[in-house]
Amino acid sequence: MTNCWRYPAVPCRLEVNQPWWDQFRFADAVDIAIVAVLLYALFIWLHDRASRSLGIATGMLVVVFFLARSLDLYLTMLAFQYGLIGLSLVFLIVFQQDIRHGFERFTSATWLNTSRTARASDQAVSVILEALKEMAESRIGALLVFPGREPLERHVRGGVMVGAELSTPLLLSIFHPKSPGHDGAVLIKDSRIHTLGLHLPLTAHVDQLGGGGTRHAAALGLADCCDALVLVVSEERGTISVAQNGRLETLQEQQLAEALQAYFGSHETKQRAPEKHPIQKLVTPLAALAAATALWFSFAYHTDTIERTFVVPIEYRNVPEQWEIEEPKPKYAEVTLSGSDPAFKLLDPTNVAVSLEIGDVNGGRVFRWNTESNLSNMVTELEIQRVVPETVTVALREKQP
Ligand SMILES: Nc1ncnc2c1ncn2[C@@H]1O[C@H](COP(=O)(O)OP(=O)(O)OP(=O)(O)O)[C@@H](O)[C@H]1O
């Protein structure tokens, strides 16, 4: 396609009497819905994870942005425009773990399945208690890892994925000294036996082991680097200890039950909390929808219809072989379009052209075409105001042999 130039766009505004609902398209509703879902995820994340100061800072930035926008503060808007790219990168780097965790949560959809998880965790506590007691009595060494909020993938090595239902007999057979999988730790995740044979990092705080060996050092080692809860059964002493938040202590049966209930309780807090009133449940989604709608009105919806003029090339097609167009022939046409600013953003003016079919010459020599009806690659949301020249006249002459 030949080059075409775009006039320096100085849009002229037209009076528009159309109410906004007449301009509202299905695509706009989808637009708002997608942004509302993203905002909903952001609100949930802010509520769950973000610190209060981060929330306040974000709120202040939003206020400054809208002030700058409504008062036309050019420099501040420029700072936002460029700063936003940098901020997004910083955000991605600082919160990469949370973002990854969020995607994992989203894809596994455990948050849609909350009541089932609560019931499953009650059962998990009794299964684990029974297995630990039996292993302690029979002097079978064991190491159980319960992940916290922080990911532990980068701290642990090896292991075999199992993905099995949690049961006392299965735990007993995994840690049985004759079982090939008894070495290493078992990861219990989402009330299931997730992985066995995991290798944990060893602690540097050997003074805290209280006579324990490498199994206990491994339990404390993981508790040193993340918020996981690790339970260890001593083969030699028949004791059960817990390692959490950089501390290792031996537990009595009652304390063990409490520790497990606290773990599963804190991981199911939302499920165990009193049922919210249906209206309360709607607050966050409605807030997300309202914010998305407000953003749409602020950024996407434009009451103004603007006009822009482009210079587009005229393409002469199907000129019969023995004919040629006499020079000087018109090469460009001026196309004036009207529509909203977002509609113009969908238009690639370098693809717009007026194409004129010559076809059958029929002995005639001078032709006129209507240029408007031959415009190609137009965006449907834009209206053609005028094309200059309205018609094109060319003279054809037979090629000299
Ligand atoms: N880094 C590690 N990660 C996971 N498990 C480990 C690790 N190091 C050792 N273990 C487990 O601990 C076992 C060895 O336990 P060891 O007797 O040395 O420790 P301990 O703390 O004295 O335990 P116990 O009181 O049961 O004897 C290994 O067979 C292995 O199953």
UniProtKB/TrEMBL annotation:
GO terms for molecular function: adenylate cyclase activity; ATP binding; diadenylate cyclase activity. InterPro entries: CdaA_N (IPR045585), DisA (IPR050338), DNA_integrity_DisA_N_sf (IPR036888), DNA_integrity_scan_DisA_N (IPR003390). The keyword Metal-binding does not apply. Residues 96-254 form the DAC domain. The chain crosses the membrane at residues 26-46, 53-71, 77-95. It catalyses: 2 ATP = 3',3'-c-di-AMP + 2 diphosphate. Keywords: ATP-binding, Membrane, Nucleotide-binding, Nucleotidyltransferase, Transferase, Transmembrane, Transmembrane helix. It holds the Pfam family CdaA_N. It comes from the Bacteria. This is DisA bacterial checkpoint controller nucleotide-binding protein.
